[in-house]
Amino acid sequence: VVDGLCGREPPCRSDYSATWSLEEWLQLLDFLTGLFSLAVGSNVPDEEVLAKLSDVDHSHAEAVRSVLRARQEEIRRALLTRTNSISSAILQDFDWQLKLALSSDKISTLNTPLLSLGLDVRENGALRPITMELNREELSTLVSSLEAANKVRPQGRCYLINLWL
């Protein structure tokens, strides 16, 4: 299962057709792929992994945990590669400043808080700075959009969106 997750040849169903039906086989593959992805992508502790395997014989649960720990870095690299393949742009760094706009050329008293957000995005090897200025409503919309995107990500996959503001 880990081989399939890491882009190599997955296990062949015909080797296990006497043990599991097609539906059981697909459920098993989906469960283990999701478990490995979640455990590595979210740094789930061993106790929590074993708790998710509570319905499984202890020796089988230990075997899954052992495979997970032995191939953790390989799984992490595969998940990062899959995530990075979504876009060629990668957020390298960011910086933010909170400002208070006191007035503008059109309004003498403004008193509006603004967030100045600077993103350093690496795209095709070149670093491209992106700067934006957001008012309270725009920032709220951005945060809501990122939270919504994080909620609809496929369960068991490692597509994490973190905003450190």
From TrEMBL:
InterPro entries: COMM (IPR017920), COMMD4/6/7/8 (IPR047155), COMMD8_HN (IPR055184)
Domain spans labelled COMM: 90-157
Record-given protein name: COMM domain-containing protein
Lineage: Eukaryota, Metazoa, Chordata, Craniata, Vertebrata
